[in-house]
Amino acid sequence: MKIDKGQLGDTNKTGITEHNERYDFLAYTLLKKGKDVNAIVKKLQDFQVAIPSWALGAGGTRFGRFGFQGEPSSLELKIDDVGLIHSLTQSAGAISLHIPWDVPTDYNAIKDLANSHDILFDAVNSNTFQDQKNSKESYKFGSLSNTSKAAREQAVAHNIEVVKIGEKLGSKSLTVWLADGSNFPGQTNFQSALQNTEDSLKDIYKTLPEDWKMFIEYKPYEPNFYSTVIQDWGTSFMLANACGEKAYTLVDLGHHLPNTNIEQIVSTLMLKGKLGGFHFNDSKYGDDDLTVGSVKPYALFLIFNALVYGMENNPQNPYPAWMIDASHNIKDPLEDLIQSLEAIQEAHAKALLVDQKLLLEAQLNHDVVKCQEILQDAYRTDVRPLLQKARLNRGGALNPIDAYRSLKVRENLIKERGANSVASGL
Ligand code: PSV
Ligand code: MN
Ligand code: MN
């Protein structure tokens, strides 16, 4: 199904008067504070987040999976789903493919389809954390870090192949996330595992097209529970530096030990020009992959404050690639993604409201109370009318979840695809 612009316009009529009143009041208040409201709305309109091809069906856990009816059973249908989200939210203008879960068959047809939805191909993700059918070498004991040269070579070759696939789609970056590590003390030699990883990454990096970037994702644990080769931002940063200027660190919000100060990591990386990509999600305990902003919205705002500061003050850092990396176990995946996009834009908008000049002044005066007041004044502002305005300006929905439900999107998908349709690739 495709969202009909006329129908969407009709659903937008409900609530438009209330929106106008709330927007006018907010714009007036912000204007009095010296904010350029139009510039903020424009920034929100331009902020596009990639949807991962693996997040459009129900994810499940190692204890089971509860399917969601009408899931997309092919890459084409996944692109259609991103198209639906994008029509409503106007902030999901890209898809990120995981290879080999989602290898296109007809590249031109896939590109035309994405184009018809106004969707670009973001980073391509390699997968050396699972053994693929008919592969000669096993990744059970690692991929790029494996003590076996043949296994390392196979993993390097896979990454090079993923870049080739990405090139045919117009992607410009490769994300490498490794599950490599060990489950028990003594199982591996930390130094040789790291050295092998660095050498393998360099082999991949050497083949990277001129205008491509390589993102190195880190994660402290899982699936290995004693050690992980690329366990933290420092290790990723070190490897990115060893590879060269086209290699960057990728921050996934769920890939930190509890209470880690992620906003400080973001700031450090941007200062050094090495924050390449970002995976949004939320968590209570570990890599929970929950809806963005559902558990720690204030932490998300503080992270966005660091991101906005970096985007405004660190020309040495390229514009980061944004992606949602979440899993949906009990919610409709599309509704969950819409909620995540809303939370991202909300934190972004609030961060754009932080009065950086006043904050700097308060910092220099060591006025700790004032510093907090400034941040929290921005955080406590209800910015939802700004998000609505940005969506309406681009032809999206006033209230995406309400529109999704009133247009009966899921019901239509079930009719088209059947109740038992299972997301492909997983
Ligand atoms: C690993 O936990 C991760 O965050 C990486 O980004 C993977 O590519 C993705 O999840 C999907 O498994
Ligand atoms: Mn991730
Ligand atoms: Mn993860």
Structural summary, described in words:
With 426 residues, this protein is of the alpha/beta class. The chain has a single domain, classed as Divalent-metal-dependent TIM barrel enzymes (TIM Barrel), CATH 3.20.20. It contains 16 helices and 11 strands. It has a 6-stranded parallel beta sheet with strand order 4-5-7-9-10-11. α6 runs parallel beside α7. The longest helix has 21 residues. It is globular and about 65 Å long. It binds alpha-D-psicofuranose and manganese (II) ion (MN) (2 copies). Alpha-D-psicofuranose (PSV) binds next to loops.
Write the layout of secondary structure elements.
Layout: H1 5-13, H2 16-32, H3 37-46, E1 50-52, H4 75-89, E2 94-96, H5 107-116, E3 120-121, E4 124-125, H6 149-169, E5 173-177, E6 181-182, H7 190-206, E7 213-217, E8 227-228, H8 233-243, E9 247-252, H9 262-271, E10 275-280, H10 297-313, E11 321-324, H11 333-353, H12 356-364, H13 368-379, H14 384-393, H15 400-406, H16 409-417
Parallel strand pairs: 1-2, 2-3, 4-5, 5-7, 7-9, 9-10, 10-11
Antiparallel strand pairs: 6-8
This protein binds alpha-D-psicofuranose and manganese (II) ion (2 copies).
